[in-house]
Amino acid sequence: MPSLSSRPTIIRRSPIRRIAALLEEAKRKESIISFGGGAPSLPPPREVVEYLAKMLREEPAKAVSYTSTRGIPELRELIAQDLKKHWGVEYDPNQVLIVNGGTEGIYVALSATIEPGDEVIILDPTYLGYSEAIKLFGGKVRRLPVSVESGYQPSLEELERIISPLTKAFILLSPDNPTGRVVTEKFVRGLVDLAVKYDFWIIFDAVYKHISFGRKTPWVDAIPEARERTITINSFSKEASVPGLRIGYVTGPQEAIDAMEKIKQYISLAPSAAAQYAMIKFHEDGIKDRYLEEVVIPTYRKRRDLMYKLIKEYLPEARTVLPEGAFYFFVDMRRYLEAMNRNDEEFANRLLYRKSVVVIPGRYFGDKGKGHVRMTFVTEPEDRIEEGMRRIAAYVSSYVF
Amino acid sequence: MPSLSSRPTIIRRSPIRRIAALLEEAKRKESIISFGGGAPSLPPPREVVEYLAKMLREEPAKAVSYTSTRGIPELRELIAQDLKKHWGVEYDPNQVLIVNGGTEGIYVALSATIEPGDEVIILDPTYLGYSEAIKLFGGKVRRLPVSVESGYQPSLEELERIISPLTKAFILLSPDNPTGRVVTEKFVRGLVDLAVKYDFWIIFDAVYKHISFGRKTPWVDAIPEARERTITINSFSKEASVPGLRIGYVTGPQEAIDAMEKIKQYISLAPSAAAQYAMIKFHEDGIKDRYLEEVVIPTYRKRRDLMYKLIKEYLPEARTVLPEGAFYFFVDMRRYLEAMNRNDEEFANRLLYRKSVVVIPGRYFGDKGKGHVRMTFVTEPEDRIEEGMRRIAAYVSSYVF
């Protein structure tokens, strides 16, 4: 075999994707309770799947035809209206680029901005895909630590200390994975000031934007000075419960959108037509707002509150923060893990093996995540959240007591 | 705005994608006859869209859920069986990576093999996406010319002359875009010998593999020595008429597949679940073979034969080759263009403006394509092929005679 490039060796395989593959092949799937990958278990809005099913039957060629790389104009128009309505930002539909989910959004944003040697600042812990994508472009990863003590809120002072002349971008995820933290207005304002002062990009990952249980996330480029230096990543996976349709969008300055579109032509040509038509329907007839207000948020809020109660009850020595948004509890388990003489990864592996419960080791999200586990509350219904938490409690107490 | 990376400046915008976007926005779409983008106008097999529509209605959460990055095991198993049946090659399902269409296949194959400075040999003319994707990875493009005189068949002698110590890969597309040429068994055998001798990868782009009107394309890695140095790109866009579902697959040595999967995790996470389920159905109940034999090939063969007849009739001074496969005529128009004092791009622009017929300028496929145009016969039905060719003839004769 001729040699491979160095790219595969400079990145690591996603451990969460490895778990996804294992679960897909597991024979005993039913008995496994997953607090692992953040996969919504809710079906998408009825009207959306009905619309797509009908279109597949009645206009099959249209439903599966090529579209432009930027995406169907009607969908981009609806998205621009929706951004204005929910976040007060005005975007021309040409400043909206449809992408194959948030992952492709991050990838094209980094591709269009990062040169080898550039530094990108991300939080620690944070979504594990950022560091690997940055490395694929030769970028250097700098990490800004956050902790349970400060409610996983980043500090502007610490941020300014790690900014260097090589800083090219900062990635902000709010609501956050893995912590559920919604960033403060004050932080965003300060971040924008720093981005202007030191001339770097803000990549605002807003894939969980509509999953919040109280305070909405501040919107970065609602601040005028941010507009020319912010690329925002959006996904329909979470808000429409369609992770497997692989559809999202990116907004940003026109020149950046044009650059990302150009690159995307050679990565994936164009987004899925079927997924785009489904998302056109999602924005019509008030379906989106109704689905979020009546189905998604109430369902997830109940599950979140239940998991919170059970963590307090079954794992009283654990420390966590009630998530204001997104899908996850990030739980500091160090008191238990020390008593068990296990690290978070060993704990997660054995918990799956012994009790058939999936949790994600905190170290996968950064060094500061060591001793923590991430548990999602959106994949399982309430009875199985109860059952899973009971199994975790039984497993822990078999060691600790 | 902070600076963008250099990537957008080293590649060019795809002129074919620009035309796709223009057509999408055109008000007078109906009157435009497109011999442009190779978009099949046939609907996909009835059973496939029915199956997907039913699944969306009855199991919506499953139809749009995350899958593993490599793809649903059942689909990969069916693909492995299909490759054995049609091409006599044995692949383990783990050596099949599902991708978001042929474009992503090419992109991940190059990402996993090409370092900055490596040379990749492609034909001239050839599919315009290769050169830009190579450049995105810092690779250098070397071109092997082919011409209408030799039926667009590449020469082994000329190939060996441009191989250098930096040659890392050769991209072979058969059946070919833009020429419709199916490569010879002799060329493939010689290519494999050279790849072994000079230790380079063969990237075999087989996206048109089932679109042939006589002789099937030789299969590169059916030759044992090719197995460890060939990555094959497959797409369902052409064979199932589902370009807008964005689904295809890649095969290759296990280590290369593992590397490509790892990279893909950070490009697009996972392929579309809905598209994968549709393609599972495509492989069942003999649907695929029946659809190809009874619908696709007879329909396209008729259109191809009609267009050939009309080219001979209306453009007697043009030179072309009856395509053995794929979707296109590549027509040497130099006799006309010289008389008209226009190059191929000017000709195509004016033809669209004056006569509302889309053809693709040959120069977009490489310098050797200058003076040619590419015309697809799969997008329009026969009456519109007739009408389009009449308009071209009228346009040309208004100048020439």
Tell me briefly what this model is:
Chain A is built from 16 helices and twelve strands. With 401 residues, chain A is α/β, with parallel strands linked by helices. Chain A folds into two domains: 150 residues, Aspartate Aminotransferase, domain 1, CATH 3.90.1150; 240 residues, Aspartate Aminotransferase, domain 2 (3-Layer(aba) Sandwich), CATH 3.40.640.10.
Keywords:
homodimer; 401 residues; alpha/beta; Aspartate Aminotransferase, domain 2; 2 domains; seven-stranded mixed β-sheet; three-stranded antiparallel β-sheet; globular
Description:
The first copy, chain A, has 401 residues and is an alpha/beta fold. Chain A has 2 domains: 150 residues, Aspartate Aminotransferase, domain 1; 240 residues, Type I PLP-dependent aspartate aminotransferase-like (Major domain) (Aspartate Aminotransferase, domain 2). Helices cover 46% and strands 13% of the residues of chain A. The first copy, chain A, contains 16 helices and 12 strands. In chain A, the strands form 3 sheets. In chain A, strands 2-8-7-6-5-3-4 form a 7-stranded mixed β-sheet, with helices on both faces. In chain A, strands 9-12-11 form a 3-stranded antiparallel β-sheet, with helices on one face. A two-stranded parallel ribbon of chain A has the order 1-10. In chain A, strand 5, helix 9 and strand 6 form a beta-alpha-beta unit. In chain A, helix 6 packs parallel to helix 7 and helix 6 packs across helix 11. The longest helix of chain A is centred in the C-terminal third of the chain and has 28 residues. The model of chain A has no long low-confidence stretch (mean pLDDT 95). At the A-B interface, helix 2, helix 3, helix 4, helix 6 and helix 7 of A face helix 2, helix 3, helix 4, helix 6 and helix 7 of B.
